[in-house]
Amino acid sequence: MKELDKKLIETINRYIASGIEQQVDYEKFYLYSLITHSTAIEGSTVTEVENQLLFDEGIAAKGRNLSEQMMNLDLKDAYVYGFDWVQKQQPYTVEFLCELSARVMRRTGSEYSTLGGKFDSSKGELRLCNVSAGWGGRSYMAFQKVPHAVTEFCCWLNKELASINRNDIVACYRMSFEAHFRLVTIHPWVDGNGRTSRLVMNIIQRQLGLIPSIVTKESKGEYIQALIDSREQEDSTLIQDVMMAQHISNLEFRILQYQQDTNDTVGDTVNETAMPYNITGQLLLAIKEHPDYTYEEYAQILSVSRATIARHIRKLNGKHIQRIGSDKDGYWSLI
Q: Is the pLDDT of residue 261 over 70?
């Protein structure tokens, strides 16, 4: 077994033992993170806190491009649909993948008229034109081959899911990474391939009882380069290893965040299990993105009381944040 594979098992065991997944709002916050990072890789600048306001309160982010916010709304709907679909235990089909793509592109897709014919990306229709990769300029397979390639992909994936040992965590993760690589390499649609392929990867992980992996915006460069290298060298273990290492790093960071947050709240009179996942980290993120917000606005973002926000700000003040200006007209600054 690779050292990387051993590290994954060790990290997941610590992650489960930490109790993170027992938090009431854990799944919601994790879903927001999946969506925010996936769209950020495609150029979205909408932050996780802004997405939380958009999804929960219907509040659009000030100064953000409307198409970016629609991109995030569409991907959220696609994730909810995909995670609900998991419960039906149905085989993967070309129609299902196209439905996922349609949901990903519902508000931002377009109609195309090409030599190959007319198609609509907002309806998840397979491309009828050839496209070149943004990574090095190499062309993807000819559009005439796409329907057959997607059909073969579904056959391969259904066979893998039927035969894989679900107790072998490493094999399950590597198969989900392989599925992501195969689908994005086929490039079935004219747009939204990255988002849809990462969504399919997360759906597979959900089916197999795994913690969904996040390709963070900070690791975008390494991720894209690994895709290029895997395609050029025809070796998918390259992207698998990169995605495995990134997943381990993300889990370790979340364990650390959770442990710090738990230590911060020891002795508080509030019921900790009623609080959202990693309130300290979420509050610092909110302050960074919206330094001039009031206690009430921070409380609304994090779905907690004003008193909870006030208590955490008192603990952070002087160590991690400082007040610039007056209480009325000033703002918070990270130290």
A: no
- Mean pLDDT (the chain) is 88
What are the percentages of helix, strand and coil residues in the chain, rounded to 5? 65, 5, 30
Q: Are 282 and 152 part of one and the same domain?
A: no
pLDDT of residue 134: 59
Helix (H) or strand (E) holding 331: strand 331-334
CATH number at residue 291: 1.10.10.10
Same domain, 150 and 208: yes
d(CA 195, CA 104): 7
Tally the domains of the chain: 2
Percent with pLDDT over 70 in the chain:
92
What are the DSSP calls for 12-60, one per residue?
HHHHHHHTGGGSTTHHHHHHHHHHHHHHHHTT----HHHHHHHHHH-PP
